[in-house]
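Deviation from plan, reported transparently: magnesium ion complex.
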Amino acid sequence: MKHTKIKDLLSSSKTAQEVNAKGWVRTFRNNQFIALNDGSTINNIQCVVDFENTSEETLKRITTGAAISVTGELVESKGAGQKYEIQVTKLEILGDSDAEKFPMQPKKHSLEFLRENAHLRVRTNAFGAIMRVRSVLSFAVHNYFQQKGFVYVNTPIITGSDAEGAGEMFKVTSLPFDNPPRNEDGKIDYKKDFFGKETNLTVSGQLEGETFAMALGQIYTFGPTFRAENSNTSRHLAEFWMIEPEVAFNDLNDNMDLAEDFIQYVIKYTLDKCPDDLKFLDSRLTEEEKSKPQTERSEMSLLERLNFVLSTNFKRVSYTEAIDILRDCTPNKKKKFNYIINEWGADLQSEHERYLVEKHFKCPVILFDYPANIKAFYMRLNEDGKTVRAMDILFPGIGEIVGGSQREERYDVLVEKMKALGIAEEELWWYLDTRRFGSAVHSGFGLGFERLVLFVTGMSNIRDVIPFPRTPMNAEF
Ligand code: 4AD
Ligand code: MG
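Because the crystal trials were delayed, the predicted structure below was used instead.
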């Protein structure tokens, strides 16, 4: 008999049928009631064991974590909390789980402990829910762009360029690092390396994505990106997934419209598809908030927050306006910020971004027209000569979730900028070709997928929304 997923059993319309379910035991009470979960839903199915006709030896092996197969009749449950249960007639232990040793006990574990057991934490309610939501969100991403006719592009993971000019890259080499070949001046000779040049793991697929947008019109990427920045924060990963749409003929306003519509769509989609998981995560967060002092608790529950973002227009504010607000705000005047904002041109830190979003505007904010010298070389210079057509989207509890811009489409201006920043033209000859042959206004952005998952699940540490996080000093699993 083929097993049926627990999700399907629980939403079944006919009872009094013989069914088979396979899964992992969550709990076993009174030698009689098994709460069985197979990952298809957050909900367990109750399996009622006829303990009088089951051997003592088998009963002992029904422990938390064990894999079992149960066959029996699907009947309406008399117990509270579930609609159906299985009256077990046949029970088979597929894989034992030593109750003394299995780390995921049916009790509250700290998130820290669960991170150390990332291979097993997915067997808990919270992580099962997070990972299902993550999966649905990524499907929503593809759905959104595919419905709009965007072409999905797989940009290279090994690159010869530093798209963000940030220099925070992981090197890719096959040279022996204890004794690499060297040229006359003693420098490592990358001509002898695998690719005949220096290569890195990509920090962004944008530059390659732009070349495709200038042929296919609307494209998006969705893939892993790598940053060797030593930011040990709850918002940074060394390996994260990024979604980067790029659209020919879009200006910065079109870009903001696209980003806002996209984010609202994927949240709506997930609210519709994951009601049980989100309800669970909503209660989890409410519970977690109770341990915080009243003043630090968020005013809205998770579900309220998600619905709020759907029904609110993101507030669009120029960098210059934001600086004025920050300069005059109480935490700045009282020197409560770690970085005091004195003048125009200052780079915003996450404390400033979060003040704007959480305290001042109390809604998602799109900041635009940043000073040119704190942003990447490829951004479109404004007529004022000192700001660029950049935009960052800031979210409550998260800070920056999106970074994007209208791109500098003018060949001469772009080359000037590269010269000023010491970016070699020979390295980006192919990128410059898009400006030499049929250049046009175009724009795009990058959304950090894990930051989106953080927002949607209400988790507070980015290590908890990716299966196996990579962070400084940690690459376990
Ligand atoms: O702002 P960033 O650096 O922009 C770019 O990479 C552009 N090339 C995007 C584009 O215009 N196509 O990164 C984009 C987003 C950030 O807003 C943030 O959400 C996320 O990527 N991000 C990270 N997420 C997790 N860990 C990190 N270390 C991240 N760095 C950036
Ligand atoms: Mg950014």
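Residues 315 and 365 are 5 Å apart (CA to CA). We consider this an acceptable substitute for the interim report.
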